[in-house]
Amino acid sequence: MPAYKLTYFTGKARAENIRYLLVLAGKQFEDHRIDIEKDWEPQKANFEYGQVPVFEIDGKKYHQSHAIWRYLAKEFGYYGSSNEEALRIDMVCELADELLPFYFKKYYWTPEDQKVQAMEEYEKKDAERVTGYLEKLLKQNNGGAGWFIGDKMTLADVMVFNVIHDIIPWLLEIKEGEYKLKDKDALKGFIQRFKAIDSIAAYMKKRPVTDF
Fold it and tell me: pTM of this prediction?
């Protein structure tokens, strides 16, 4: 069995999809977390590309979160049963992932006195729009009563759960899982189904509480 090691900050963000996939597949892994405030700068030069996450398989290092997600999804059977399903999985993942660049554009590139207004716009416009599209996509498969693609969980489901349950609350500075989906009943049910998976529930119960 390969030896897996994940190196990332003491947070979820870009690494949590990796953790979810490993947990779902029942794989043991070393979860090495770096304190971004205290320990990152002295160590940064030791990392190729000067960034994390870094994923190791038997000591060989791999970089770039999207590439790692896709590799693990293919390796563990979460990337669909055909090229067409893989295409649809990528469509869902890229749609969900749009919420991060929207946030950075509105928050980091906005004057300080306009940030509160920018975040309100992010929540009411960007997050609402993307989750609305995700609600429609989910309903197109089995009426929204299962997963996003086909009859089995895929990377698309992992990605959407991470964005709605972990990422959006972090960006809006609320507790994880507390983003209100309002009238999006299919997505609400989806979030509960994902959280109820035994391995995911056990992992979420023991994972450290982090700021992001």
Answer: 0.93
